[in-house]
Amino acid sequence: MRLLATALILVLLAACGEALVTEGELRVSAAASLTDAFAEMERVFEAANPGVDLVLNLGASSTLREQILEGAPVDVYASANTSNMDQVVAAGETVGEPRIFARNLLEIAVPAGNPAGVTSLADFSDDDLLLGLCAQGVPCGDFAREALDKAGVVPAIDTNEPDVRSLLTKVGVGELDAAITYVTDIASTPGDVEGVAIPEEDNVMADYSIAVLADAANQETASAFIDLVVSDEGRTILADFGFVAP
Predict the structure, then answer these.
(1) Are 22 and 77 found together in one domain?
(2) Tell me: the pLDDT tens digits for 129-156?
(3) What is the pTM for the complete model shown?
């Protein structure tokens, strides 16, 4: 079904004239939680624009922000929250207004079979469990701490990981009994990791924003990629990987 959907997207892009992009490299720095969805975007965009080599730089939104502010060559920035994007905008590093293109929710990640029997955020105060979050300053870490605070939980955390995929890996191999990640990340690892839902009243919605950078080598190509991401076709791809439309 995904192959059929991709083929349909390519037809629609060609029909809409989206394949009129110059040749060259397009450098996209994107939040780690977008790994799978943007890999699909990359395939679709390059198929429609054979002269373009889309290069993904994936990591914590805060790390990517610092790379941009320090002068790293980046054409498009996609952040898992708006606060990191706001800092890039304030520094005059973007062209036009950033666009919210997706939303995400938190979920507790546990190893397959949930051997520690984790059932809720309250378990994150248990010193006997091995528990992890993303580091402070990383969107998934800040959102997780916000959710724990809303639930009235003082966490006993054993590790603070640099990004959500690093955290998820530790859960998948059994090094952690539980962690707080995004719904989309748990969905990306069927069989290795299971999810425990967080009640709506304690959960936190992440708004993902995207923008062309002022120093983009080819702003036309960068804008064309963003057009794909925010299009109906792009939202179909994002929905396939568990993201919610804004």
Answers:
(1) yes
(2) 999 999 999 999 999 999 999 999 999 9
(3) 0.87
